[in-house]
Amino acid sequence: MLKDLLENKKCFKLVCGAGNEDALEVEKLVTIYSLAGCNFFDLCAKPEIVDAAKRGLARAGIDKDRYLCVSVGIDGDPHITKAVIDQEKCVKCGKCKVICPHDAIIELDKYKVKKARCIGCTQCANNCPKQAIEMVSQLQDYNEVLPKIIAKGIDCIEFHAISTDEKDVMEKWAQINEHFDGMLCISLDRSELGDKRLKERVRKMLEIRKPFTTIIQADGIAMSGSNDEFGTTLQAVATAQLFQNANMPAYIMMSGGTNKKSMELAALCDVHPHCLAVGSFARKIVKDYLLADDLFENPQKMSEAVEIAKSLVEVIVKD
User: Fold this and answer.
1) Domains of the chain
2) pTM exceeds 0.90
């Protein structure tokens, strides 16, 4: 059970991307990382993406001890935003296409965003010399979305609560709790709230939950894991330490800028999360294989991809 993995601190979560609507890529990611030993997968909250993940598990020949989580967000949360290019301002310099880590910018007669591949990382918007790119929230009606997702058979719902609007956070949290009685995850970072308010919010959210039926995803800097350095994962460790020291009745998952160095740095700081979640870095190291049209038909390529993924997964899931 997922709870057992968390209790034993043997839980590795692959973040496919809360905004990643590319079903084929998700199927490839889940196949590769499941074969590599990953036991928890974070997905976009769309039925077709849950189906894609299940196809990945089927391809891997694994039908137990693998768990699926879907992510939902709130207005202002970067995980549910998509880039939109203002064609009037765009000068076609191509910087957005070069810098996009997810190949979501395509060049036709104009530069456009392939919405299904945009994960909301903001790199294009932050580096556009003409400020021609806006990040727009893709808001969801939980009462419409969640029943369809839950019917697919999932093990966890993750709520990205990165917002200063306390009322909106608590209303949406209540909605999620009404729809789903399984494991829930609260994803938070320190970008909007100070440490005191951050802890107060989580304590308030946990009041309506039974002890240890909730995961606190301690985010460092969301979608920032582009390299394998200690500095990249530093904020994730610091945020996990904040919640660990608060001694709340919940599991702690470290995320946001995480990489192969995350658990080593955490141990040096006497931080011991129940789960490690890796997204950007995990996807980057197998990117060449994700782009291969023949990945599923080529055993050598699949084996190579799995070995690369295994080198990351084994930092926490060890024999």
Assistant:
1) 2-75+142-313 (3.20.20.70), 81-137 (3.30.70.20)
2) yes
